[in-house]
Amino acid sequence: MTKLQERKSGQDTSRGSSWDAVLPGYRMSAAAALLEHRSCEDGRCAACGQPMPCPPACNAELILEL
């Protein structure tokens, strides 16, 4: 089985353990970003002032879905 086939099937053991090790850190950072980038009364982000949902909030939500 080639490396590409292993990755598609989810059986890639060479990098699976490192991904499992770093994913909780990414999730914690994403949760912290969502706490910081919240909507104000005017529909803008409290942290960056962009219209909600701002890019950092969208990225954080994506990470939490992994």
Please describe what this structure looks like:
- The protein has 66 residues and is mainly alpha-helical.
- It has a domain of 45 residues.
- The chain contains three helices and no strands.
Indicate the topology.
Layout: H1 3-9, H2 13-36, H3 55-65
Helix pairs in contact: 2-3
The parts where pLDDT drops under 50 for at least 5 residues are none
Helix-strand category:
mainly alpha
Main sheet attributes: strand count, strand direction, barrel closure: none
For the residues shown, what is the average pLDDT?
83
Number of helices: 3
Radius of gyration: 17 Å
DSSP summary, beta strand count:
0
* Gross geometry: elongated
Kindly estimate the percentage of residues that lie in beta strands according to DSSP.
under 5%
The helical percent reads: 55-70%
Succession of helices and strands: HHH
Descriptive key words:
66 residues; mainly alpha; elongated
Summarize the structure.
The chain is mainly alpha-helical. The protein has helices at residues 3-9, 13-36, 55-65.
